[in-house]
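pasting for ref
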Amino acid sequence: MSLEQQRAKFAWEKAKASPNDFTSLAKGAPALIMGNGLMAALAFWNSRKTEQGNHLVTALLGWLKERRLVTSDEFNAAMNEIVQFNSDTYMQATNEALDFLKWLRQLAATQG
């Protein structure tokens, strides 16, 4: 299975389990990451304490864990790891999150 197929499969599973009104959050996620950075975006979604935000954080961290960029999909543990990344690893994690979101935002729209 190619990496794109793996992303699509993981995104499909997360999209199927997504809460109501998740599509608009997923669609805006790449812009928030590109404008503010991966950590800031994750912190923002986590701080909102909404079902949609929690689902997005869990989906993104779950995918980064799948790709072995972090060892935990729990917010605090993953953020402690991400803050220690060198710039190359941080960019790799950011790019991987953006590539995953291409799938998640499209597939979430099919669940609405």
